[in-house]
Design goal:
The chain has a 22-stranded antiparallel barrel. The chain has a five-stranded mixed sheet with strand order 2-7-8-5-6, with no helix packed on it. The protein contains four helices and 35 strands. It is mainly beta. β25 and β26 form a beta hairpin. Belongs to the TonB-dependent receptor family. It is found in: Cell outer membrane. Keywords: Cell outer membrane, Membrane, Receptor, Signal, TonB box, Transmembrane, Transmembrane beta strand, Transport. Its main location: membrane.
């Protein structure tokens, strides 16, 4: 839905437009840059009063009602601007990330699915590696975006291929008219940890710019214990050092009263040693990961119509070396274009139709040849609000891939505010969807073992939620949400050793059922100058193979490897007269480490926290000193089998902010 009202007319002559473009060009780097707009209340049915010449557009999430969405606490995330998405998600949510060690590979598990079943979108474009089909969350810096949202479950099919388990959305909404503001932070910690970050932004009613950069390194030479025939022996971790940096540039420029030009650049570079398994010989493995992401787009809003065109170009490079592997190089270039048109048919009815095209060009040593592939998809989305308390969506997406037949992917969703009192609000939510995942390039073309005849994985999923809001007084609120879901994935791809050959090969062997319950409650209290925010979240996740072929050696009816049955996260944030106190605690139950459910890793409870004080030196400047502690109980644990994790450790931070 698009709601636009101009408070006063403004000049949009070509001369003035050219002057605005010239100013923007002088402030931006060579590549185009972007930042998205602040969200609007999509459930409202009355016009919004907007600043001069504002172009507001409906977000794609507007057509994904009925499903759970979690946006990370921006204040808590701001404590680690040089940190990674893996750190933010693992400390602030009950989501389980399989972590091979600090700075090492970190892959996500959403609702009992694998990492390749979660789509990661940056400005609406999927940034998962086409070769692996997933994103390494240890390579995604927190300050690459200003908003991090997780949407698990069926409605994620709205965002395209690969979202069987859910979607992680990275965006940078603009706060128009904010002027200059920014911050710089320096961190120093145990085991050679050094980090720094800087972020600066500017916006008026025409132009918005944001620049963010971060750098971090660590030796990771922490002590750990190894069990031998002589008992526990303390050793020092070797070959686990890392160094990575990131640079982000976003910009949005308003063109007259109806147009908006967007652009973004996101560069990341990581050079890391690969931490050997406990008890294994050090083969001096190392890996270099580089990503270059460019984005540009234009949107035009006039009356009841909105048209948008967006383009993106990615280059992902992965180079691996070790004593046993002389070299393994990979470079994939992805070109994408998206176009859509929205129409407000009535005040409570809107539709959006669109399509996208992708071109992959891969040069991977493991393929033995250069590969190219084209993918296309089209979609239609409908949002209908029959009453002020009922919101409905019906969507459909169809992909077109040469030589393959991805299924039609429909999505239905609804939200109904069944009760509203002075202090209570009760909302029911529900959604259902069919989604799919195209096999990765590695699964089809790796030599030896790739299987070009793999079928797409398909999924049918359902979820229902009840959300209750209690607000007895303006300074106190409690929001609780309970969600139940059920999902079945067919043609689940699994790598297995060959029957007559020595190498492994992927096959469509399984039908997997994932079902569970998610419960969260968030308390907000602000009596005077004291502020408290507390959030508790629990997830029960059952993910099992329910059928397979006779030559599949894995049993039916047991929990899949590295899917914990129970996860809990409890966070608090308190502030008073310049003091800030954050606590973060998570519980992860035991996880099987093999498909036959014979070996497992024990459960663990992690406690972290930070204490800081802000000195206001001037009305526009402030200085914050911060002490952060991790694994405060000094627990010995493993996120992944035979991969050591650090004991108790801390970080000292100093942050300067201005506005």
């Amino acid at each position: 839905m698009v709601r636009i009202r101009f408070l006063r007319a403004t000049s949009s002559t070509p001369t003035r437009t050219l002057r605005v473009l010239a100013v923007a060009a002088s402030l931006l780097p060579t590549a185009a840059v972007q930042a998205q707009r602040a969200p609007i209340d999509t459930s409202a049915t009355t016009p919004h009063l907007l600043p001069t010449a504002v172009v507001e557009a409906a977000r794609l999430s507007r057509y994904a009602v009925g499903s759970r969405r979690t946006t990370l606490d921006s204040v808590a995330v701001n404590q680690l601007p040089a940190g990674t998405l893996a750190e933010a998600l693992s400390r602030l949510t009950p989501i389980y990330l399989k972590n091979y060690g600090p700075g090492q590979l970190s892959s996500i598990t959403l609702r009992g699915t694998s990492a390749r079943h979660t789509a990661v979108l940056w400005n609406g474009f999927n940034i998962n590696l086409p070769t692996l089909g997933e994103a390494d969350f240890a390579l995604l810096p927190v300050n690459g975006a200003t908003r991090i949202t997780v949407q698990p479950g069926p409605a994620s099919a709205v965002y395209g291929n690969g979202a069987l388990g859910g979607t992680v959305l990275l965006s940078s909404p603009v706060q128009w008219g904010a002027g200059w503001r920014g911050q710089a932070q320096a961190d120093v910690g145990n085991y050679g940890m050094r980090a720094g970050s800087v972020e600066n932004s500017f916006s008026n009613d025409k132009l918005a710019l944001r620049t963010a950069a971060s750098y971090r390194e660590g030796q990771n030479d922490f002590p750990y214990q190894e069990r031998t025939i002589d008992g526990l022996v303390e050793r020092r971790q070797t070959n686990a050092a890392y160094r990575q940096w990131s640079l982000t540039q976003d910009a949005t420029l308003r063109l007259g009263q109806h147009g908006e030009l967007m652009g973004a650049v996101w560069l990341t570079d990581a050079d890391r040693r690969i931490q050997p398994a406990i008890g294994a010989a050090n083969d001096n493995a190392k890996e270099r990961d580089q990503s270059r992401r460019l984005f540009a787009g234009y949107r035009h809003v006039a009356g009841r119509h909105e048209t948008g065109v967006r383009m993106a170009w990615f280059e992902d490079i992965l180079n691996y070396r070790s004593n046993t592997v002389a070299q393994s190089n990979s470079r994939v270039r992805t070109s994408q274009i998206q176009a859509d048109h929205s129409l407000q048919l009535r005040s409570n009815l809107s539709v959006r139709v669109g399509g996208e095209a992708q071109h992959f060009a891969a040069r991977v040593d493991g393929y033995g040849q250069d590969l190219t592939e084209n993918r296309f998809s089209g979609y239609a989305l409908v949002r209908y609000d029959p009453t002020s308390t009922l919101r409905l969506t019906a969507n459909i997406r169809q992909a077109f891939i040469p030589g393959r037949r991805p299924p039609l992917a429909p999505t239905l969703g609804g939200e109904w505010q069944v009760w509203q009192h002075d202090t209570h609000t009760l909302v029911l939510k529900g959604s259902a969807a069919r989604s799919y995942r195209v096999p990765t390039l590695n699964e089809r073309y790796w030599r030896p073992g790739g299987n070009p005849n793999l079928l797409p994985e398909t999924s049918q999923g359902y979820e229902g939620s009840v959300q209750h809001t209690f607000k007895p007084i303006p300074t106190l609120s409690l929001v609780t949400e309970l969600t139940a879901y059920r999902q079945q994935v067919r043609n689940w791809v699994q790598w297995l050793p060959g029957d007559t050959v020595s190498y492994w090969s992927p096959r469509n062997l399984r039908r997997v059922r994932a079902q569970g319950i998610e419960l969260s409650s968030e308390l907000g209290w602000q009596p005077g100058r004291y502020t408290l925010t507390a959030r508790a979240a629990y997830a029960y996740t059952q993910s099992q193979k329910v059928s397979g072929y006779t030559f599949d050696p894995d049993p039916v009816g047991v929990q899949l490897p590295y899917v914990p049955l129970h996860t809990v996260a409890f966070t608090t944030r308190q502030s008073w007269r310049g003091w800030q106190l954050l606590t973060q605690s998570t519980f992860t139950s035991f996880r099987y480490t093999d498909a036959s459910a014979t070996t497992f890793l024990p459960s663990y409870f992690l406690l972290s926290g930070s204490l800081g004080y802000t000195f206001t030196t001037r009305s526009t400047w402030s200085l914050t000193a911060l002490v952060q502690g991790f694994n405060l109980t000094n627990l010995t644990y493993n996120s992944y089998e035979a991969r050591a994790m650090p004991p108790r450790n801390g970080v000292l931070s100093l942050r300067v902010s201005w506005r």
